[in-house]
Specification:
The complex is a heterotrimer of chains A (512), B (338) and C (287). With 512 residues, chain A is an alpha/beta fold. Chain A is built from 16 helices and 20 strands. Chain A has helices spanning 57-77, 80-96, 98-109, 113-134, 162-175, 190-201, 216-223, 237-247, 272-284, 304-315, 336-351, 383-386, 402-410, 425-434, 467-472, 504-511; strands spanning 21-22, 24-26, 29-31, 38-42, 47-52, 148-149, 152-156, 179-183, 209-211, 230-234, 253-257, 263-266, 296-300, 355-358, 373-376, 393-399, 417-421, 439-442, 461-462, 475-476. A 7-stranded mixed β-sheet of chain A has the order 14-15-16-13-12-17-18, with helices on both faces. Chain A has a 6-stranded mixed β-sheet with strand order 9-8-7-10-11-19, sandwiched between helices. In chain A, strands 1-5-4 form a 3-stranded mixed β-sheet, covered by helices on one side. The relative contact order of chain A is 0.13. With 338 residues, chain B is of the alpha/beta class. Chain B contains 15 helices and 8 strands. Chain B has helices at 3-9, 12-20, 26-33, 41-52, 58-70, 83-94, 116-123, 151-163, 175-179, 183-196, 213-216, 219-231, 250-267, 282-295, 313-326, and strands at 72-75, 108-112, 136-140, 168-172, 206-210, 236-238, 272-274, 308-310. An 8-stranded parallel β-sheet of chain B has the order 7-6-5-4-3-2-1-8. Chain B is globular. The termini of chain B are far apart. Chain C has helices spanning 45-64, 67-83, 85-96, 100-120, 124-128, 160-173, 188-199, 214-223, 240-248, 268-272; strands spanning 26-30, 36-41, 130-131, 138-146, 149-153, 177-181, 207-210, 229-231, 253-255, 275-283. Chain C is globular and about 90 Å long. In chain C, strand 6 (177-181), helix 7 and strand 7 (207-210) form a beta-alpha-beta unit. Chains in contact: A-B, A-C, B-C. Chain A binds chain B through residues 1-9, 114, 118, 269-274, 277-278, 317, 326-327, 423, 443-444, and chain B through 37-40, 42-44, 46-47, 53-61, 63-64, 67, 258, 289, 293-294, 298, 301.
Chain lengths: 512, 338, 287
């Protein structure tokens, strides 16, 4: 027998107890949406999993109103320590239902169970634990004594890490004393609805968290709603730009986590085996559906051939297939639309003259799949070197000197993340200083932690999630935004909409 | 000439000297070994942990359990070893599961040099004695486990074991010399011991070079010592004596497998790897199989290229094996002790 | 017999040089009482473009200088301003029509503001940065870094010198470079400040001062792809929502207008507002 064809090791779905239909979670109850429900499908089989409610504008109004009532009512009367206790409860419930959440996530999203089990869900619990402890320590958030919550937070999250992005959004918002209306991505609502059940189990006061499902227009209605005070969005730069435009002139505080085209820089003195792992993890983790994916490999020209040779060998051991199999490394592409985009961009890469190599792996008959792919002979002007592909596709470029590596790494409108591989410590520090990116991994890649701020430079967005800055993004100073010289303390993220006298035209624009 | 051409066209000793750019002096070896890319401990350990999380089930697990047995060097290395103990060990090696004749035999028994005659005698016709079938006798030598003796004693130790019928010699390197940068001395000793493995008919006992990774301490040292042992002519590189903690670990073994993979890329030669000490459960051993298969390839999962140095591992594998055969859990009274 | 005075020619300040507007345009600066004081250069969109080029060229040097050095350079501005306080007092009295005491107080406050912000240069990182206790063998640290080029609309009301300093100084602390549109009707102290900057240790291009119409120039800066942040501090009477919408195109960081006596109160917030938090993960391996 061929040992490497490991026998199937599927994670059992018996742990799941899914409903056939999911409503909206508003004011602590599941209610029917007034839009047309839509199915959520398993991208590995294209089979429907459940029907998901579709929130229309009236549903959005209801959700925001429920959040406002909860904000004005029970939630603001709670002490910080009691808010924290709810978050601790949620963290524990997530741990207790971890296996179920992981299976549901892989089923709905297509990501390998080993990732949902070992990365996504443990981080979800960690995020709630971390921010739970902040809830009664807000004086130390960096905004001076007695900082105030913002009010109702409108949160729109993407499909690549459905439950984890939910945790990144909800945990700090609640710790800071806000209430929430969250909209999951259209293709990945399932675990958010399971999370709503967890909120019921935790006995969280009604309306503190409301989860409304739907497509882009639901999200648009939510972020444009006049009664929200904070907008937090993770997703594409195009949508982020539209949101930044739509909140212009309003008092809404805004955090945006957008796209990226990270450079993963490998110097000739890199710990080579770990660098190869880092390259693989950087671009093939979660099928490359990662905003901070190391999608541009910048390799020192002197070791280009050797790195590529080793990389191809390593990629050939990746196992693509059933996301619920515990040995699967590469799962399904999340949707037909995303598969189309990846296919189009890679076709363009070939047209533009880059050399394509694709791992020789069997592609399942049904579902959405894309085999790990590398492009060599890529130049900085190629679209595959500039556009975010959001798939398992690596573009390889070369450099000769550290200065050239830095220049090429920074030569993008994005600035979310970067990787540096070298055994020379002083070079790591110097290169890290010069990279225009919000998260830099030195001799590692794609690490996340609730204590570690995450977010981008330039068109990768603004504001940070994680750590103390992630908390400050949901707070404002006790009185006015600016304090006297003597009480000045570290600040909220760059973008805040402090109350300002507005011209009539500003009001008009804000409303449109 | 590229390094790959250099490596593949020349005779082993000439090749090593050409790769070093001169004689195997401390300075030349230092230049070569310190030019090898470093190891990032966090990344290495993460990779090992990932490999260890593979889920091996049903038919794959059955194959894995049998393969583990076939790869075991069943070992006794005690001051209290006797002829009786060795005979008992050999009996276990030949018939691991008394109740299941389909159970494979282990690869070798591993004993101290003075126990070799007893092992050979006990094996009788089951002794491979230079053939491809049967059970090998491996002897630890060179003042195992510390290696603290004169070269003459180490060579005599080796020659005695070979003369007594040992098919494999497990030597220890001089860790003190290695750690003090005396790479030339370590190299020369391996070369000399390899020569002492030669039999009158020109064949030689297979040489396993024990690095004692627990004393080398760092992954960079393990990697350099692995290259050094291979350059000097070792047929196998082995993690540990089993007398020093930590003995074999998955990250250390992964690191050594990466060297073996790179040597194969460079020369086309296949070097064996033997983690020894501390591997006691089937679950752990399967992690090693996965690591071998995904690092150097499945063809390494053969006794001439991979071994487990172990004693208690065998019975745990047998219990698992019985569970797979009968469908219910077994107990220690249903496997024999050696 | 009185000596015939030599009127001063007021120009733009771009890249450490004093060019006229490429458009050749000037506009009249009148005293509070309505008398002609001077002609000021009326900057065009192309002047704004040149200013951004100069500001970009200066980012590397200024952000790469040590924090200690930036602090000293900013403090040096205060020293030079102190030496020329009489000139600033005169200009403020004539353009703003305030008493000598009020003008004097404004200059003092502007000088003190430079001193206050200068002191932050080597401290704000310690206040806004963090060592992050992540769960794993990693050294993880977050530090604020300058955003890049900050385009500023200086306050158009209130003290013309103090408003300008309150907007420019905090942006400089972290190592950003600045393109600032001065108070349109009262630009003299901005122009004089540029002369102070030119003779100080501030490298050319770090501060670029445009005089003219904010309504005309600001949209070009708000939409300029190479500008990283937009401080609309003094844009309250402009169509600033449009500016913010334009800035969204390249996801610029935007601070909204502020009005009233508390506008641009000195605060470390104003420093940190034009920084980006960079988090670096390093592996920690002993063996």
């Amino acid at each position: 027998m061929n040992f490497l064809d490991y026998a199937p090791a599927p994670e059992s779905q018996a742990i799941l107890n899914l409903r056939s239909d999911y409503g909206l979670f508003i004011d602590g109850q599941f209610v029917a949406g007034r839009g047309t429900p839509f199915p959520t499908i398993n991208p590995a089989t294209e089979k429907p999993i459940a029907m998901i409610a579709n929130a229309n504008d009236a549903d959005v109004d209801d959700a925001v109103a429920a959040a406002r009532r909860a904000y004005n009512g029970p939630w603001s009367r709670l002490s910080g320590s009691d808010r924290g206790k709810y978050l601790f409860r949620i963290a524990r419930l997530v741990q207790e239902r971890a296996r179920e959440l992981a299976v549901a996530e892989s089923l709905d999203n297509g990501k390998p169970i080993k990732e949902s089990r070992d990365v996504d869900v443990p981080l979800v619990a960690a995020w709630f634990f971390y921010y739970a402890g902040w809830a009664d320590k807000l004086d130390h958030a960096g905004l001076g004594p007695n900082p105030a919550s913002l009010g109702v937070a409108a949160q729109v999250i993407p499909w690549n890490f459905p439950l984890l992005m939910l945790a990144w959004k909800i945990a700090p918002a609640l710790a800071a004393g806000n209430t929430v209306v969250l909209k999951p991505a259209e293709t990945t609502s399932l675990t958010a609805m399971l999370f709503a059940e967890i909120l019921q189990q935790a006995d969280l006061p009604a309306g503190v968290v409301n989860i409304i499902t739907g497509a882009g227009n639901t999200g648009q209605a939510l972020v444009n709603h006049p009664d929200v005070n904070k907008v937090a969005f993770t997703g594409s730069t195009a949508v982020g730009r539209a949101i930044a435009r739509s909140v212009a002139g309003t008092d809404k505080k805004l955090t945006l986590e957008l796209g990226g085209k990270a450079a993963n820089i490998v110097f000739d003195d890199a710990p080579i085996d770990q660098a190869i792992e880092g390259i693989v993890n950087g671009i093939f983790f979660n099928q490359g559906h990662v905003c901070c994916a190391g999608s541009r490999l910048l390799v020192q020209e002197s070791i280009h051939d050797e790195v590529l040779d080793r990389l191809k060998g390593r990629i050939s051991t990746l196992r693509l297939g059933d996301p619920l199999d515990k040995n699967t490394d590469i799962g399904a592409i999340n949707s037909a639309a995303q598969l189309k985009r990846i296919t189009e961009l890679t076709a363009m890469g070939e047209q533009e003259g880059a050399e394509r190599w694709t791992a020789d792996c069997a592609i399942p008959e049904n579902g959405f799949w894309f085999a790990p792919t590398i492009f060599t002979n890529v130049s900085t002007s190629h679209r595959i070197a500039r556009d975010e592909i959001f798939g398992p596709v690596l573009s390889v470029l070369t450099f000769r000197t550290p200065a050239e590596a830095i220049a090429k790494a920074n030569n993008t409108p994005y600035g979310l993340s970067a990787g540096i591989w070298t055994d020379k410590g002083s070079r790591i520090l110097a290169v890290a200083d010069k990279l225009r990116a919000g998260v830099i991994w030195a001799n590692t890649f794609n690490r996340f932690d609730p204590a570690s701020p995450f977010g981008g430079y330039k068109e990768s967005g603004y504001g940070r999630e994680g750590g103390r800055p992630g908390l400050a993004a949901y707070l404002k100073p006790a009185t006015s935004r600016h304090r006297s010289v003597t009480t000045a303390a570290p600040a909220a993220p760059a973008v805040s909409a402090a109350p300002a006298a507005k011209t009539p035209s500003a009001r008009k624009k804000a409303a449109k | 000439m590229t390094s790959r051409q250099l490596a593949t066209r020349m005779a082993p000793r000439d090749r090593t000297l050409a790769m070093l750019g001169g004689e195997a002096t401390d300075a030349n070896l230092r230049r070569y070994l310190h030019g090898i890319p470093g190891v990032d401990a966090v990344g290495l350990e993460q990779r090992a942990a990932d490999l260890g999380s593979r889920s091996i089930k049903t038919t794959s697990k059955k194959w894995a359990l049998d393969t583990i047995i076939r790869l075991i060097d069943l070992t006794t290395l005690e001051g209290a070893d006797t002829r009786g103990k060795v005979r008992s060990l050999v009996g276990k090696a030949m018939t691991p599961d008394a109740g299941d004749p389909s159970c494979p035999r282990v690869a070798a028994v591993c004993v101290y040099g003075d126990m070799v005659p007893h092992a050979v005698e006990a094996l009788g016709a089951a002794h491979s004695a230079g053939t491809d079938s049967g059970i090998n006798v491996a002897a630890v030598a060179t003042a195992f486990p510390s290696g603290r003796s004169s070269l003459a004693v180490k060579l005599a130790d080796t020659a005695d074991a070979v003369a007594a019928g040992a098919d494999e010699i497990d030597m220890v390197i001089d860790r003190g010399a290695f750690l003090s940068g005396n790479y030339g001395l370590v190299f020369d000793e391996i070369v000399a011991v390899k020569e002492a493995c030669r039999r009158p008919d020109g064949t030689h006992a297979h040489l396993k070079v024990i690095l004692e990774t627990g004393e080398l301490n760092t992954y960079d040292n393990v990697r350099r010592a692995s290259w050094l042992a291979i350059l000097a002519g070792g047929d196998f590189i082995k993690t540990s004596t089993g007398k020093v903690a930590p003995a074999a670990t998955l990250p250390v073994t992964l690191s050594m497998l990466e060297v073996v993979r790179d040597w194969h890329r460079l020369t086309g030669e296949k070097i064996g790897v033997k983690p020894a000490g501390g591997i006691r459960t089937s679950k752990d051993a399967i992690k090693y199989l996965v690591t071998v298969a995904e690092t150097v390839g499945e063809e390494w999962l053969e006794p001439h290229l991979f071994r487990f140095g172990a004693s208690s591992l065998l019975n745990d594998v047998l219990l698992q094996r019985q569970k797979m055969t009968t469908g219910h859990y077994s107990g220690p009274d249903y496997v024999t002790i050696d | 017999m009185t000596r015939l005075a030599i009127p001063k020619t007021y120009k733009l300040y771009i890249g450490g040089k004093f060019p006229r507007s490429e458009s050749g345009r000037v506009y009249e600066i009148l005293a509070k009482k309505g008398d002609f004081l001077a002609n000021a250069a009326k900057a065009s969109r192309k002047d704004a473009r040149e200013a951004v080029v100069a500001a970009r060229a200066a980012v590397g040097g200024w952000s790469g200088a040590t924090a200690y050095n930036r602090g000293q350079v900013l403090y040096r501005i205060a020293e030079l301003l102190e030496g020329r306080r009489a000139q600033f007092v005169d200009e403020i009295m004539s353009t703003e029509g305030v008493s000598a005491a009020a003008a004097s107080a404004q200059v003092d406050e502007a000088i003190d503001r430079w001193v206050w912000y200068a002191g932050w240069a080597d401290k704000y990182v310690q206040v806004a940065g963090n060592a992050n206790p992540v769960s794993g063998p990693f050294f993880n640290i977050s530090v604020p870094e300058p955003t890049g080029i900050v385009a500023i609309v200086a306050p158009q009301t209130g003290g013309s010198l103090l408003g300008l300093v309150s907007a420019v100084a905090p942006a400089l602390v972290a190592g950003n470079t600045v393109v600032v549109i001065a108070n349109e009707t009262m630009p003299l102290s901005a122009i004089s400040l540029s002369e102070v900057l030119a003779t100080s240790d501030v490298p050319g291009g770090v501060v670029n001062i445009l005089t003219g119409s904010p309504a005309e120039i600001a949209p070009w800066l708000a939409s300029h792809a190479d500008v990283n942040a937009l401080d609309l501090l003094g844009a309250g009477s402009l169509d600033w929502v449009d500016l913010q919408i334009a800035a969204a195109e390249t996801l610029k960081r935007v601070l909204p207008p502020e009005n009233g006596p508390d506008a641009a109160t000195p605060s470390v917030d104003r420093i940190v507002a034009f920084t980006e938090t960079k988090t670096v993960w390093h592996t920690k391996g002993l063996i």
